[in-house]
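queue> pop job 88
queue> type: inverse folding (structure -> sequence)
queue> payload:
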């Protein structure tokens, strides 16, 4: 599936993030819990270097809990903490401060020895588009987003945001990368809406999704759409779903666009239950 993914602002954004890293104590990297590998920018390790990092696996209720736990174990390192959250509902967000305290314990001890009791940590929020950065910031700021003030080296379009956790956050635009070489990555990003539907073939995308679900989650499809069985041909399964849902045009023909939009909307909304598209 051909996808035009790389916008012109990416190089500038990447450069600004590198420049602004010196202004923060840690990085909060956000990923989609359903596509934890595909929703990682492959440049992020190089960009962040040894900077302490918390990886938030957002929309965790849409992925399988046991798979997410396996990912947490796989990704956790000495300088990287991993946490499953749901930013729109605020689930798990209070644990961000706990993990940040663990990562920055040495810094906190140094400041306390100097007699500094009020310690404010600063973190940069990074992640690909549509992964939930705005939801995180709005939830932590209780929708009272306020500039903390100009700080040296911060470009004019950056904003420091106070949060209820006592952390100052620096927001950044969604970080993309120039080339999607993996077909699996392209599909996973498109399935979850990280790539806009307007630039993909929605019918081809739905066909690929039904093919995947038919292989790994057949009972979910049969139950959701009240199908007696599944064909080995994903196109036939889409046709049967369309008939069950009334996605039919004059003459009894299947309305492929309508059923494709329906399938993707229901997958993205969790109507098919928790689904993990990748495993560690």
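queue> result:
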């Amino acid at each position: 599936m051909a996808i035009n993914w790389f916008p012109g602002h990416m190089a500038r954004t990447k450069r600004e993030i590198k420049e602004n890293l010196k202004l923060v104590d840690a990085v909060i990297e956000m990923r989609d819990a359903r596509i934890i590998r595909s929703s990682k920018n492959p440049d992020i390790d190089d960009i962040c270097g040894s900077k302490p990092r918390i990886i938030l696996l957002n929309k965790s209720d849409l992925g399988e809990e046991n798979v997410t736990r396996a990912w947490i174990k796989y990704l956790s390192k000495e300088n990287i903490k991993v946490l499953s959250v749901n930013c729109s509902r605020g689930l798990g967000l209070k644990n961000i401060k706990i993990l940040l305290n663990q990562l920055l314990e040495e810094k906190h001890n140094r400041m306390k020895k100097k007699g500094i009791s009020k310690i404010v940590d600063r973190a940069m929020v990074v992640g690909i588009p549509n992964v939930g950065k705005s939801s995180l910031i709005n939830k932590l700021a209780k929708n009272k987003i306020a500039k903390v003030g100009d700080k040296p080296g911060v470009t004019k379009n950056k904003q420091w945001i106070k949060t209820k956790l006592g952390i100052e956050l620096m927001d950044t635009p969604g970080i993309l990368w120039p080339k999607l070489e993996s077909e699996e990555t392209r599909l996973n990003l498109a399935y979850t809406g990280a790539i806009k539907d307007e630039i993909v073939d929605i019918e081809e995308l739905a066909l690929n999704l039904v093919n995947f679900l038919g292989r790994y989650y057949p009972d979910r499809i049969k139950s959701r759409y009240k199908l007696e069985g599944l064909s080995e041909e994903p196109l036939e399964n889409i046709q049967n779903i369309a008939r069950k849902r009334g996605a039919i045009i004059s003459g009894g023909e299947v309305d492929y666009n309508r059923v494709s939009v329906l399938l993707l909307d229901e997958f993205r909304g969790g109507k098919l239950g928790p689904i993990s598209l990748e495993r560690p």
